[in-house]
Amino acid sequence: MKKVQGYWIILLFCVSLHLYAQAPNWQWAKAIHTGGYELARDVAADTVTGNIYIAGAWENDLSAYFPGNSYPSTDFSSTYGGDDGLVVKYDQNGTILWAFKIGGNGDDEASAITLDSSGNIYITGYIDNGTNYFSGTSSSTPDSAISNTSGLDFFVAKYNPDGALLWVRHSDGSSGDAKGLGIYAENSSVFASGYCTGSTSFGPFSGSFNQGNED
């Protein structure tokens, strides 16, 4: 995969709705940049608290942005290996509340993020071969490690508003890849979308979804 130097940039502005278009009133902007690879894929906002959540991917060293013990269980001086998924929570003023990484030895990504009415967080994306970690802000979370034995796997993970893992599910492909690209939560249901190639299983549902190159 070709990688390019990138910036993680978060912008927040308010727009007054009038009969005629007005210039946006910028509130704040944040950037995360190390000279490596940083990518913000998706954003979700809590309309009650004003908190903002970002999902994406990174490599290199982010310890200058997430230092010391401010973010329990997460060492941001390096990824688990390759690219890791990254989830960050900001308050309405742009102050970082917490952050954690997702992944293992390969290239992994948090591609989409959404919230339910209780403020729980749902993330989808993909993980590469090997053991991948989803422990969130707690290093003691049980069953936070997932083993992927082939290609890329599609995952859906749920975290509480403090970033603690509640559960995680993933596809299991005997051939080809699967990636989660979109996610939505309503009431007690979660809907995720993406694509796959070859033979892929989703819990009790399995089969060859590949009717061409990608489905």
Automatic annotation (TrEMBL):
Pfam families: SBBP (PF06739). This is Bulb-type lectin domain-containing protein. The lineage of its organism: unclassified sequences, metagenomes, ecological metagenomes.
